[in-house]
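Worked Example 4.2. Read the sequence first, then its structure tokens.
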Amino acid sequence: MKPDIYLPVIVAKNTLERGAVISPSDIELKKRNISSSRAGVITNPDEVVGLTVKRRIRDLQPISPAQLDQPIMVDRGQRVVMIAEQDGIEARTMGEAMKKGRKGDMIKVKNESSQRVVSAVVDNMGVVRMLYAPGQ
């Protein structure tokens, strides 16, 4: 028999639907018995704010890492800022995302001026970093 362990954990204030981006007003800390929790628990609100809900979370249900994902930061067809950096010099241009992506995802982006398709890593909302500088 496991002992009961109670900790303040992050729970949903209201039902959160799939695809919702969590804001501070969506969550609260509530003391819960975590001794039987297999999915893990989150105790720091900063770990969930800004993340996307993978599947519905009922009101007052503890939120686990498995229920969350990084938000989509670039949509397919979206006009994005392309950044290339080399030896401390940064160049920026505009491009079109060929697929959607979350922070850290590698996606293909078409450079608007050269029409070249290059690989880039999603860095922020509407911003990608090219893996290499053009012309290398």
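Now turn to a second chain, presented in exactly the same format:
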Amino acid sequence: MPDDITLSEEELHAALAEAVVNLDLQRTGELAQAVLDRGFSARRAILEGLSAGMRRVGDKFCSHEFFVPEVVVASRAMYRGFNLLKPRMLEEGGGSVARRGRVAIAVVQGDLHDIGKNIVRLLLEADGFAVDDLGKNVPPDLILEHLQQNEGPSLLALSTLMTSTMDSMRRTVEAARARFPQIRIMVGGAPVSEAFARDLGADGTAGDAAGAVQLARRLAGGP
């Protein structure tokens, strides 16, 4: 194993992804610290290292190479690096001052998977959005209540990892559209296609966290 001080930025990203796939919490933390010590971009390390590793974990879960216990440990490894990199990530994005608008983000009712949502939230915050994180397994009525009581969110971001909760996403989008016709809605997650997003009446979807930020910028009317 090369000394971390000799690894290029791209090699550190690859090593981070590998550490997540290998369920190695200690190594993930060491590599995240190396990113900070070397002055490399925390944003890129999250996207091209940690997030890439979790995509591979998801692929292994779908192919039955990994099961729930492995996914749980991989998530812990990802968060070990994620939490170390988050402060630098926010600094790179100009801190927590909202420059682009306000987003309400939630995982729809019936789904307890929030890793992807948490990564998107962090990237949105770093990009200058104020983010209201409503959590996971959120019923449509609670989302509507938040939008009603907290005037300001112009964008609603919904996610799901499971095909079994796509109907829940549909109900949430339809309810939000009926109550708040001006709000822009973006949806995402492994089973969400562009065709499904259009059929829902959402304003767009993205295939990964970086794409979600770009979509949010466009929907918010920014560059």
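Notes for the reader: Strands lie at 101-107, 129-133, 155-159, 184-188, 204-205. The longest helix spans residues 68-92.
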